[in-house]
Amino acid sequence: MTTRLPGFSVSGVAASKIAVAIVCLAGLIACSDSGGSSQTPTVPSETATGQVSTGNTSSLTLVGAGERNGIFDDRILFGQSAAFSGPASELGLGMRTGILAAFAEANENGGIHGRTLELTFRDDAYEPEAAIANTTALIEEDLVFALVGAVGTPTSRSAVPVADLNGTPYVAPFTGAEFLRSPTYQHILNVRASYYQETAEMVNRLITDLGIVRIAVMYQDDSFGRAGYQGVRIALADLGMEPVAIGIYPRNTKAIKTALLDLKQGEPEAVIMIGAYEPVSHLILWARHTSFNPEFMTVSFVGSNALARELGEHGEGVYVTQVVPFPQDDSVPIVAEYLEALAKYYPDEVPGFVSLEGYIAGRFVIEVVERCGRDIDRTCFLQHIRDGQIIDLGSFELQFGQDDSQGSNEVFLTVIGADGEYQPIERMIDRTR
């Protein structure tokens, strides 16, 4: 495989290292924010058409050398770099499942303007360097029309400049980071609410519902964790408050014991956690084991199904903010359609918030492709829906503007019940009474 950069024609790992160096020298990413392992996974690209009746959708597809930007006579090719291995893998897998379910649904009905929708995907294991290499390969080798369903803030921070330099749409990343919502990046279209909105809702619920004022924060030591931490600080500062304790842990690890000790010193009534499901569940389990039982809250990125499974009987009372409707509430039209598509194309998959977000991302892509018509191009895809009109995907509404790249502002509150299942709630409950 050959990666093409201006003035270069090199292959494999060498190309990815040059890409990293060029982007870093240009000042486009924080290269010190790599965390964890710096090894780039050498995972082959796979392509799924969505035209299947089971969860096994992978098949290698060769793209014609004469075709550019993923638009073919009979199909449109999208790309995804996400975590399909490692401690955040269920997030990438869930997003992919949801996107493919939406694509399969559309393809079975004849596609969009005579074209089927395909998704080619590469594993970045939630590592920024791998996200750069994958994004470069998806654009330069796979020739994708747009990128959809990326997972994570540090990986997006690394991949976005590559997509921007190539004019490639970056659609529905699974992150609420604020930089993705900057008017500077006109090639980004976010579906979900931001981390600032999620953390503001957390602080508001804790204070309004429970009267809690001693709030601590645990966060992942990277751009994702800092984005959520900053959101908590802003929400508290608006009320003349600040965190009573702070715990930090390294990305892609479960090394949370030092963070737990730091949190305990502040004697908090509640801990807001900004992390993925493995370290977050690890901290809660250790806290329960040591009789440290404040209210625990975490953001949607955690991966709700995986968190509940990891916590088991110790999950009761853990709160999670969500940015999509409850995935079992079939009174919401898009949820009913998601459940039907999941049962048909991925019958072994358990419905969840992550795959529902992936499905909504896929439906959003389909809606924009539909509106652009047969002569679709990237300019139409990025600008056609920025006129302030409401896009109703089935009682889940999106609205974009010229300087507003975020479609939804919805934040929902859920809690894990005694049965280990999530429950949607309007307000927090004082479990000490």
Tell me about this structure.
With 433 residues, the protein is of the alpha/beta class. The protein folds into two domains: 2-192 and 332-399, Rossmann fold, CATH 3.40.50.2300; 195-322 and 412-425, Response regulator (Rossmann fold). The chain is 37% helix and 17% strand. The protein has twelve helices and 17 strands. The chain has helices at 12-25, 89-108, 128-140, 153-165, 195-210, 223-237, 257-265, 277-289, 304-311, 333-345, 353-372, 378-383; strands at 2-5, 8-11, 46-48, 75-82, 116-123, 146-148, 170-171, 188-189, 215-220, 246-249, 270-274, 295-298, 319-322, 390-392, 397-399, 412-416, 422-425. The strands form four sheets. The chain has a seven-stranded mixed beta sheet with strand order 10-9-11-12-13-16-17, sandwiched between helices. The chain has a six-stranded mixed beta sheet with strand order 3-5-4-6-7-8, with helices on both faces. Helix 2 crosses helix 11 (353-372) and helix 8 runs parallel beside helix 9 (304-311). The longest helix has 20 residues, at 89-108. The protein is globular and about 60 Å long. Mean pLDDT is 87; it is low at 1-44 and 50-67.
C-alpha geometry: globular
CATH architect. name of the largest domain: 3-Layer(aba) Sandwich
CATH superfamily of the largest domain: Response regulator
**Mind summarizing the main beta sheet?**
7 strands, mixed
Level of helix content?
Answer: 25-40%
Total domain count: 2
The unreliable regions are 1-44, 50-67
Distance between the termini: 63 Å
User: How many helix segments?
Assistant: 12
Strand arrangement across the biggest beta sheet: 10-9-11-12-13-16-17
Radius of gyration: 21 Å
Given helix and strand content, the structural type is alpha/beta
Instruction: State the CATH class of the largest domain.
Output: Alpha Beta
The average pLDDT value, as a whole number, equals: 87
Output the helix-strand order.
Answer: EEHEEHEHEHEEHEHEHEHEHEHHHEEEE
Find the count of extended strands (DSSP E, 2+ residues): 17
